[in-house]
Amino acid sequence: MATIPDKEPYIQALNEDWYRPHVSNISMLRLDEVHPVVSGNKWYKLKENIAHVRGTGQAGILTFGGAYSNHLIATAAACKYYNIPAVGIVRGTYAQEVLTPTLQACVHYGMRLVFVTREEYARKTASDYINDLRTAYPDYFIVPEGGANEWGRRGAEAIAQYIPPEFTHVAVSVGTGTTFAGLRNALPEVQTVYGYVPMKNGTYLSEELRPLVPDKHWQLFDDWHFGGFGKHNPELLGFMNDFHALHHVPLDMVYTAKMMYGIREQLQAGIFPKEARILCVHTGGLQGNESVKALLEY
Ligand SMILES: *Cc1c(COP(=O)(O)O)cnc(C)c1O
User: Of 65, 83, 120, 241, which has the highest C-beta tally within 10 A?
Assistant: First the structure.
């Protein structure tokens, strides 16, 4: 397997036809390129968790995810690489009937999958449930869904080192908000951070994030969910194909495509100042396009 990370992230300027005359520059930070499987923000959120498990000599990592989870596959691959036993608690017992490509890959990397009902999965943060898991998997380090813990946030802070001060705005997709929180805390306050939540009513996360990100130069948007988390329509897929044709950047359907779609609408609505220089973080997740690959031209 390729070393992790396999490649340094880099900044790619977008084709200016896409954003002129609205703003001065839009570029993308290509975190999707750091590794073929442990891609994007997932590696940064995992790396401190893995260092912690290795440093404390714990027995393994147990974490949570759905049948298409970028976090689950990244954890499975990273644990394989570091020779750490991994257990994945998967949402929905039906998911074991026909494994998605994501789950097949998890099994391939040696992750032990445990399928639980949606009701049981919903208790994933309840302390009695966590205690039951601790009993069943003694000495495993339990990483919340999406890598959403302090190690995840600390790992995500490292992404800020790739963001030069010339950018006035940083845009990032938000699932749990872990990456967003790490970035907001590590970047200078003058750089505004915008978070794009790809689910309905996602800005409720603002309340959860407020204590973690005390400074005020940030905002979440949830207008571009396209019907909900993981949902898509021909408009979104057409946008992804056009975006790839113009910039040669593959977007993922769940997160980054919705963010870039939203940014395009915000440009047209004039919400950014003309002198804005926007850095959009490509958080990876391209494996999530598997189910629509027949409709994509890349
Ligand atoms: C997981 C993921 C996110 C969300 O990251 P959080 O730290 O949970 O907010 C964004 N983009 C992609 C591509 C992801 O896979």
Answer: 65
